[in-house]
Design a protein that fits this description.
Elements lengths: L14 E10 L7 E10 L2 E7 L11 E4 L3 E5 L1 E6 L15 H13 L4 H17 L2 E8 L2 H11 L2 E8 L6 H15 L7 E7 L7 H14 L3 E5 L3 H11 L3 H8 L6 E5 L5 H9 L3 E4 L1 H6 L7 H6 L4 E3 L12 H16 L7 H8 L1 H6 L17 E5 L11 H7 L6 E6 L2 E5 L2 E2 L4 H17 L1
Parallel strand pairs: 1-4, 1-5, 6-7, 7-8, 8-9, 10-11, 11-12, 12-13
Antiparallel strand pairs: 1-2, 2-3, 5-14, 14-15, 15-16, 16-17
Helix pairs in contact: 2-3, 2-15, 4-5, 11-12, 12-14
Bound molecules: zinc ion (ZN).
The site of zinc ion (ZN) has 5 residues, from loops.
């Protein structure tokens, strides 16, 4: 039975206590609780603070003694395409347009439901094992993605990717409406919908306006790619005599809540416009480096007050879905770009992977920090490792030293999905086997 079909009354409310750990709440920079406790009731956090000596463990269904571990909000990946994990290592070290036109798009035309289901599950296992509790995705075969999200217990914001060329627009819009009607806010709210026009170079202005009309009708935010490559900027200049940002402003995109991925090629005016219109940005340093798209002007965007979170993009252009790696890249490459070791300090990078991610998905009232009343989405990192000693600064360790294999326990929506690195609900071996099988079948089709 799918989780969405279970009556709310039937869901067993469980109480979980995690105690004796360090807690980084992400509510304020200096806030570190050295012997802390987080209590969960159902899907929500009911307490965060010092260990309560007067509260008995017997009051809880389960108690995790987490001495030596660091508890923090789960990571939020604000831009990916999970099913593209099937193309990981299939075609590397190619220019973006060659990679897309000759390798990726021909295979995407042959994808099946089963391909998307197993690849999304594989992506979810990888994300959970590296501490991601929410991801923002744009793809197609939405029912199969939903099935994987439902079964796994992860939190996701999904958009049906829309291309407005070659007569593909109307089918995409119809599938978008079906998806929104059936699945927005399903799984006790774990699945949210957005609208996903792919990019200015694949969605002409008139099609963008059709998408915006649907966003207005359903009162939902949008997720798109913007200013990723110099090719895109040139294409926009040649066709519209505008930068991609100027074009999107003219189309009316920025009058809606929107998260845009990449923003590698921006002018000062572009950035001022985006700050003014409160456009949210997903910074994807790994993918931008691998595809040689460039290095986004992150320090300038932040300086102008733009809210920026972190994304991996797909595992085909990264090649993993590890937010710890994106944090480290964000904290390192901009120091070199700006010739200034003070830019993107560790706390800022961690904030981009948690709290700013929640803002990027318009979910800052629910996730991204550890606070009473927020969703029970958290991770425990095992700090009893040689590469995490001595412990002068736990935040610096998370950003500069930690590895995804240090993620020990993952809780999403109050449910333990991984404990002591063991997946609770998903059969990891079976998922790897089936993803491999589908990938081989796909390239032979
Ligand atoms: Zn992308």
């Amino acid at each position: 039975m799918l989780r969405a079909e279970i009556d709310v009354e039937e869901v067993v409310m469980s109480n979980l206590r995690i105690k004796d750990c360090y807690i980084i709440t992400m509510k304020a920079e200096e806030e570190l609780i050295t012997r802390g406790e987080v209590a969960l009731e159902g899907d929500k956090i009911s307490y965060v603070g010092e260990v309560r000596e007067n509260v008995d463990d017997k009051n809880f269904d389960q108690v995790i003694y987490a001495s030596g571990k660091v508890c923090l909000p789960g990571f939020i990946n604000t831009h990916t395409h999970s099913p593209m994990i099937l193309f990981r290592s299939f075609a590397d070290d190619l220019p973006l347009m060659t990679w897309l036109e000759e390798k990726i798009w021909p295979l995407e035309d042959k994808l099946t439901s089963e391909d998307v289901y197993w690849s999304t599950l594989l992506a979810i296992v990888e994300m959970i094992k590296s501490g991601t509790t929410t991801f923002n995705d744009m793809y197609f075969f939405m029912d199969d993605m939903v099935r994987a999200v439902e079964e796994s217990g992860i939190r996701a914001v999904l958009a049906r990717g829309l291309i407005g060329l070659e007569g593909k627009g109307e089918v995409g819009l119809k599938e978008t409406e079906d998806f929104i009607t059936r699945w927005h806010n399903s799984c006790q709210g774990r699945i949210k919908a957005m609208l996903g026009p792919h990019a200015p170079y694949t969605c002409p202005p008139e099609f963008f306006r059709e998408v915006l009309a649907k966003a207005s009708k359903h009162k939902l935010p949008l997720h798109t790619h913007l200013a990723e490559t110099s090719f895109e900027v040139q294409h926009c200049k040649d066709n519209y005599d505008k930068t991609p940002v100027e074009l999107m402003d003219q189309v009316g995109l920025f009058d809606f809540p929107v998260i845009v991925a990449h923003c590698v090629h921006l002018t000062e005016e572009d950035m001022e416009l985006m700050a003014d219109k409160k456009v949210k940005v997903s910074h994807n340093p790994g993918s931008n480096l691998k595809l040689a798209s460039g290095i986004a002007p992150l320090a300038s965007m932040l300086g102008k007050g733009i809210e920026v979170s972190l994304g991996t993009d797909s595992a085909a252009s990264n090649n993993n879905l590890d937010l710890l790696e994106e944090m480290r890249l964000a904290a390192l490459i901009h120091k070199a770009r700006e010739n200034d070791p003070t830019v993107i300090p560790a706390y800022k990078a961690l904030e981009m992977a948690t709290r700013e991610g929640a803002k990027g998905l318009f979910m800052e009232e629910e996730i991204g920090i550890l606070q009473e009343g927020f969703k029970g989405d958290l991770i425990l990192m095992d700090f009893q490792k040689p590469h995490l000693y001595p412990q002068h600064d736990l935040v610096a360790h998370l950003v500069y030293s930690a590895q995804s294999s240090d993620v020990d326990t993952v809780v999403i929506d109050g449910e333990i999905l991984m404990e002591n690195r063991e997946m609770k609900g998903l059969d990891e071996e079976r998922i790897m086997f089936n993803a491999q099988k589908q990938a081989l079948e796909l390239i032979r089709r």
